[in-house]
Amino acid sequence: MNFQNIVSLLVGASFVTSCQDAEKKVETGSTEAFTEGERQQFSGKGKEAVGDLAGTLGSQLKAAMASGGPVAAVKVCKEVAQPLTNSTGAKRDGVTIGRTALKVRNPQNAPDDIDREVLEAWEALKGKGDALPGHELVRLDDDTVRFYKPIILQEVCLNCHGSDEQLLPELKKTLDELYPGDQARGFQVGDLRGVFRVEMEVSSAE
Ligand code: HEC
After folding, report:
1. 67 lines ligand 1 (CB under 6 A)
2. What's the mean pLDDT in 149-174?
3. Under 8 Å between Cβ of 60 and 80
4. Which residues contact 108 (CB under 8 A, 6 or more apart)?
5. Band (11; pLDDT cuts 50, 70, 90)
6. How many angstroms separate the alpha carbon of residue 100 from the centre of ligand 1?
7. CB count, 10 Å around CB of 55?
8. How many CB atoms lie under 10 A from the CB of residue 174?
9. Distance in Å, CA 40 to ligand 1 centroid
10. What is the pLDDT of residue 24?
11. Among 11, 79, 110, 158, whose Cα sits 20 to 30 Å from the Cα of 62?
12. Beta carbon of 109 within 6 Å of any ligand 1 atom
């Protein structure tokens, strides 16, 4: 066997192992893989629900920032984020949607074990300098599937999720009052801020 063949074997082997590891990690609880048809169905449904929630939350945030600045916008967020999130799921049969993260501002958004596993796998990918997948599907059991999509921190988010030096003193005070256990500060542009999670009953996807 010549040198070239050995190199390609080695490269091939490590590629296969890392793919399998990533898949196993993220697809916790999965008993069977997805068929191509299922992938399309669940991904389409997940993307559509996330697009809806991201759109409504984003436009509320933009309007609130424009009319009253970040301090007023935090109060608006506190009022509307949860009801908007819940109603986005409730509009769809057999679907719930949410946002979660390893570091949360609102404890109602705290991750469960599966969320945590996805978030940690994605943090590990970022740590290695690898690109994140656009989304990921996880089968919880025969009847339930989850769709996850990464949320990457952008410049505008630093107003409320940046370092202590980046937060206006009045904003910090408001956050401390509204969210006493706030962990969602100190992020930088490009960080994995969290994920959108769409949980779907399998029967709802037909
Ligand atoms: C005006 C301040 C403000 C800005 C700007 C802002 N956020 Fe937030 N963010 C909040 C508040 C307040 C919450 C808690 C909402 C709640 O009570 O559910 C929150 C919650 C979140 C959550 C849910 C998880 C958690 O920590 O509870 C994510 C994810 C998130 N923000 C991402 C972003 C991203 C990405 C951006 C930029 C595109 C952004 N935020 C910009 C104030 C802000």
Report:
1. no
2. 96
3. yes
4. 82
5. very low
6. 10
7. 11
8. 20
9. 29
10. 39
11. 110
12. yes
